[in-house]
Amino acid sequence: MPDSSSHAFDFTTFLADKEAWSAPNELVPYRCRDDSSLGCRHYPAAGMSGSRSHLILLHGSSADSRYLASLATRLAEAGHHVHTPDLRGHGPAPQRRGDIDHLLQLEEDLEDLILSLALPADARVIVAGHSAGGGLALRFSAAVCQRQRADIPLHGVILLAPYLHHLAPNMRRDSRWAQPRIARMLACALLNRLGIHRLDHIEVLGFNIPPEYRDAHTTDAYSWRLMTGLNPRDYQSDLKALAHHQLPVLALIGEHDEAFHAERLAQCLQPHHPAAQVEVLQTIDHLGLATTSITAEQIIAWLPEQRTDQDDTPG
Fold first, then answer.
1. Distance CA 108, CA 112 (A)
2. pLDDT per position as a tens digit, 22-54
3. Which of these, 33, 172, 202, 239, is most buried using a 10 Å CB contact count?
4. How far is CA 308 from the centre of its chain?
5. How many CB atoms lie within 10 A of CB 200?
6. In sequence order, which residues have a C-beta less than 8 Å from that of residue 186 and are 6 or more positions away?
7. Which domains can be identified in the chain, with CATH numbers?
8. Which portions of this protein are annotated as coiled-coil regions (predicted)?
9. pLDDT single digits (tens) 193-208
10. Which phi and psi (to 5°) does residue 156 adopt?
11. Are 312 and 148 in contact (CB under 8 A)?
């Protein structure tokens, strides 16, 4: 159940379970188009070196990829290659913590990561993300479809308690996780409409992170361009793009999610992607969704159901 203290999520239970988590694999660098280097943890499919399935699993706001290790390990043990990048602006030693260079850079980084894997022609890429990472998974996947990227063999999207929009029907208005600086946001939004990006670097969003969860990897705040580049452009249009290209979607959320109304997720997704499969997991909260074995079981059960007659080009 939600922590009733001053923080948005139940960090008490989350941290108490930490000793049972799988140890994260080491970060491996990959090169980006701007000649910078970012890190990704790779979990090879156990006993199945020829597996076609590659899951790109994205972490949530303020965090890095370490907390996804248990989920990634379980999926790898079931025969799926899993890759968990530290998004730009996050992790142990980012060039600029909480910031990126421009609004599309996170999408470009994911493209560069996938291309760096040198996947075989029959590979099947599934993009997944938790919380804000789910929003980025939706944004990125829709962009791949719209740009008809034949070199990115996208075959599915998995949304784990995804952030969609601050006015989406499933958003809890009393969530205390993100602390927006409204005046700064309004100024940046207005300037962006005028084609001015001079203030895109300023911090506009902070996170209510308890001291016991903070460490050298924690990202306390986001710039305008990181926040904007992480969120869906328009979640409804993005979902319609996935539906148009017949890209399957699995969405999972915990019954006790503290940031979103679990029972409203389906009404956010299915009007725009009628085939999206939405499941509410009993007794699970927002952070627990990323670490519980039930999440891995749901994903493993869903993956074999995806069509095997798709070619490598979405749509």
1. 6
2. 889 999 999 999 999 999 999 999 875 668 899
3. 239
4. 25
5. 22
6. none
7. 11-175+231-305 (3.40.50.1820)
8. none
9. 999 999 999 999 999 8
10. 175, 165
11. no
